[in-house]
Design a protein that fits this description.
The protein is mainly β. Helices cover about 0% and strands about 60% of the residues. It has strands spanning about 1-5, 10-20, 30-40.
């Protein structure tokens, strides 16, 4: 998702899931992380 704050500045949010069918013992098969960033257009 990307939202313009000004004509050149934007805020970006992402959700990323990684799946491992054979994880190490005691680990989950799915990893989910959230990424928040700021972008500048020139």
């Amino acid at each position: 998702m990307r939202a313009a704050l000004t004509s050149r500045l934007a805020l970006e949010a992402k959700a990323q899931m990684a799946y491992n069918s054979k994880p190490a013992e005691g680990r989950d098969k799915k990893d989910l992380r959230y990424i928040l960033g700021v972008g500048w257009t020139f």
